[in-house]
Structures are given as structure tokens and as C-alpha cells.
Amino acid sequence: MYDVVIIGAGVTGSAVARELSRYRLKTVVLEKEEDVCCGTSKANSAIVHAGFDAVPGSVKAKMNVRGNSLIKELSRELDFPYKQNGSFVLCFDEKDLPKLEKLKEKGEKNGVPGLRILHGKEIWEMEPNLSPEVKAVLFAPTGGIVCPFKLTIALAENANVNGVEFAFDTQVENIEKTENGYSLQTDKGIYETRCVVNAAGVYADKWNNMVSSRKLSITPRKGEYYLLDKKAGDFVSHTIFQLPTKMGKGVLITPTVHGNLLVGPTAEDIENKEGVNTTRQGLDKAATMAKISAENVPLHMVITSFAGLRATEKDEDFVLGEAEGAEGFFNAAGIESPGLSSAPAIGEYLAEIIAEKLHGEKKDDFQAERKDIPCIAESTPEEIQALIAENPAYGNVICRCETVTEGEILNAIHRPLGAKSLDGVKRRTRAGMGRCQAGFCSPRTMEILSRELHKDPLELTKAGGESRILTGAIKEDL
Q: Which of left, alpha, beta for 316 (phi over 0: left; psi -120 to 50: alpha)?
């Protein structure tokens, strides 16, 4: 019997797990994929939104602004990349200036600090590559960028170190109310629990509707993106939005914390909850829309494209808290944008009300801090020498594009909730995220995974499940 079962090891589930690990509660996270951060959390804009777009008084608005205020200190505690670079919202028509003013007013009602409307040369002094058609800009200095992989992994690792269990490759199949709580049938057996946290992303409506009198309806909203080479990373320094529409905040242009440039997303409602394929039509639309903000955006420097899904609930707001008619079943559903920004606040909010319900006692030995894998590419010569002296594997470069060493990959494999696949290594170290997109380093990374996990190379996968990289006979010396 568990006190809490969390469904989903994305950023929301991991944030709830981390905050619950402050209490003496027996908690487990069930994840159908082979690792944390395998759904919406791995494919998004990597933006920490300031909070000016959400409807004042909505759950989104409260969670967004609170999450934004928490993330800087959280990045220090858990050692993940974050930068407060500020954001621009572009207005291209004098007739739309009232909409920009209204957006500013919304942000101020939500408690967003420092909002200003910019005109004239100040705009191009701050962002010289913007379109000359820009008439005014809403500037939000508290907007930021973050690494969504590193954030999610940091939350999950810290939760695990503090006693939360994680069960991967574990698919929930059915949920039933019991006398003492809930029984969750999975493909790996039954989990009994006093409380459930439903953080299942685009599938959250399925589990809610099994137990709650209030039925949810979640539509996957697909967004397609371009990722550009680091040579394009300084094209803009702020996150560049266009005035929002009912489909979202439009196609953005933003630097990433790792020095790339990101363009996207589109917004297309689809039926397939696994539909993360890119399309020619979608990518063309992203390119066309981006060029409205900056005509010379260097799309010739694209190194990859990808798509992600946002879990859009029909009422267009986050669904947080105890589900109607289902005591002990807590929803974190409909967590679309600004879900990444809101995750720290969602974790804080749900953990507090669950701990109160279960009379959870706070630990006196909670470990609030965690250190990430040392990054050779960002280390000083002195730091590199010290790492190599401690472990010579830090002197063996495996990924040339991102300067990732064998030492970093070993660390990724052997740390809490360690990597088990090529994508697991990639999300923790960036090996394979560079210009050649793993063309050079994959065989060498596979050799390390095979050796350290004691697996036949034929068993290794790109991303768990049936995504095996090699098939058939291989030579012994591979």
C-alpha cells in the first residue's frame, strides 16, 4: 500500500514527486516510457513565461506567476540551466496597440513585475534583427529560458534521492475506487494507494473519467519546431512572441540556454495522442510566421526539426486539485503552455494539500540540493584538469559537436534514475544534440551503454520499447 501513486514522470509529475518527497509518505511514480521526460516535457518551447497572457484569476495565471518566481532559486538548488533573458511581444499594426495595452494590463493584474511598452529606436537597440514593421513591443523582463530535460531530470533525481520510487515501462490499464483509496491495474501488476496524482499529460482525461463525476476532454495540440545551429544562437537575445491568438502565443523565435536558436511552434488540434510527426506543411507555416517577426531569421542553419503535443482541456484552464466525486484522486490535467513555467508551483500546491490530507510529517533530513553532471564544454581549463585527474574518462571526447566526454556519459548512466538508452544519454549530457545529430557519437555511446549496463548491443534502444538500433548479426569486434 502506497500513500501516493503519481501517474506520469513528465515535468509536472516529477515536480509533484519532488515536493512530496519532503514528507514521510510512501510515494511511487508510474511511467509508461523507459525514462522521465518522454512526453510533452521533452518537446516544447523551453520557455519560462512571465505570466502576462493567462486570464486574470485563472489557475493558469496563478501557477504561471508563482512558478516563474520559484524557478531561479530552484535552478540553484537543483543545478539545471536557466536564464532570465526577458521576452518581447511584437505589435505590427497601430490598430493593435490597444491589444498590446490590454495584454500589459492582464499581466499587471496577474502580478507580473516590470512590464513596459517600448517604441521607436529602443526596440532595435535591444533586438536589431527584428522586422522594421514592428510598431511597438510589450517587454517582460521576468521571462526566461530553461532546459526542459535538465529541469525534469533534476526534479525526478532529487525526488528519488529523497525516497520516491519510480517504476518505468509500467503502463496503467485501469483504476478502481477501493475502501482504502484506489487500485491501479498496470501491465506490471496492481498498485494499491491512498491517493492518486493524475499527471498523465494528453491521457489525463482517460484516468480522470474512470473515477470522477466531472468528465474532462483533452485534445492534443501539435506544435512543430525548427532547431538551429549554435552559429545562429545570437540572432535574438530575448524570446520573441507575436500578439497572441485563441490558438496560443504564435510562432516564437528564442535563444536556448545551450546556445541554439529555436523557431516554432505551430498549433494544430489533432486526434492522435501519439502524433508527434513533423510535416512539410507545418514546418513551412512555422518558417512563414517566423519571418513576420524577423525577415532574415537564418533558417538555412536548421540542424533538426521536431514536434510536441500540448494537453489542451476543453475549458482552456489547468485542472488542479481533488477531482469531483473522487476523494483522494488529485488532477494535474490540461497542463498545456505555460505548463513548464508552472510546474514548480503545481508541485508545491498539490504536495501541500495532499500532505495535509494524509497528515504527512515533514522530514528533517530532506536533501534540497543536487549537483548535475559536470559539463566539460562549459568548464574552465583548471576544472577540466581536476576532473581528468579524478577520472581520466573526462579526457576522452565522445561527442565532438557538443564536446561531451566518456566521463559525462558514465555519470549519466550511473547516477540516480540513470540513462538506459541513447536518448537518455542525450537528454542528460547533450551527446547527439549537435550539428551532426548523433551521426558521429552514436556507435561510441552505444559501446559505453553496452559495457556499463551489461547488455548485448542488439538490446540497446534509441528511446526504450522496440526502438532497437541494431538488428541481425553483428561482428564481435563492433
A: left
What domains are there in the chain, each with its CATH number? 2-41+149-218+315-358 (3.50.50.60), 83-144+219-312 (3.30.9.10), 376-459 (1.10.10)
C-beta of residue 351 within 8 angstroms of C-beta of residue 19: yes
Kind of pairing between the strands at 116-118 and 136-140: antiparallel
CB 85 within 8 A of CB 138: no
CB 10 within 8 A of CB 199: yes
Mean residue pLDDT of the chain comes to 96
Q: What is the pLDDT of residues 51-64, one digit of tens each?
A: 999 999 999 999 99
Q: Which of 49, 119, 414, 454 is catalytic?
A: 49
Mean pLDDT within 413-438: 97
Q: What is the pLDDT of residues 183-219, one digit of tens each?
A: 999 999 999 999 999 999 999 999 999 999 999 999 9
Burial (CB count within 10 angstroms: exposed 0-12, middle 13-18, buried 19+), residue 356 = exposed
Under 8 Å CB-to-CB from 200, ≥6 apart: which residues? Answer: 7, 8, 172, 206, 207, 333
Question: Averaged over 20-38, what is the pLDDT?
Answer: 98
Using the predicted structure, report yes or no on whether residue 341 has a pLDDT greater than 80.
yes
Residue 235, pLDDT score: 98
| Catalytic residue check, 49 | yes
